[in-house]
Amino acid sequence: GFRIFRQVVRYRSTDTSLILERSINRVQLLGRVGQDPVMRQVEGRNPVTIFSLATNEMWRSGDGEMSDISQKTTWHRVSVFKPGLRDVAYQYVKKGSRILVEGKLDYGEYVDKNQVRRQATTIIADNIVFLSDNIRDRT
Q1: How far apart, in whole angstroms, are the C-alpha atoms of residue 130 and residue 39?
Q2: Could you read off the pLDDT of 40-50 as tens digits, one per residue?
Q3: Which of 48, 57, 80, 129 is most buried as measured by Cβ atoms within 10 A of its Cβ?
Q4: pLDDT tens-digit map of 81-107
Q5: Cα separations (Å) of 55 from 11, 98, 111?
């Protein structure tokens, strides 16, 4: 019976090491806020502050003197659940603010008004760094 017991223990410990295996879901975004944040509260849940953030990529297409500069803007949805930060974000994040957001990617599902299931990708922020006080007037 002793040998079987040792196998069970060994199996259990490898099982736990799989669960505790390190993984990373980390996002950093540096950009400008698209519109003033909104605070939403779904019944029975904590409130959440939501805003959009734009990041820009630039690259040269073509070669030599005929090359063009192309630009792509990507809009990100940022959700702040963390108490304290949620209120700071709601109060101080403004349209046009240049901020750094750190957090994790989340792929949630929701049902829209036509009862269609949709995927909502959002960055769940746990840190926001304010980099400017609207240097450029973006009204």
Answers
A1: 19
A2: 987 778 899 99
A3: 80
A4: 999 999 999 999 999 999 999 999 999
A5: 47, 10, 27
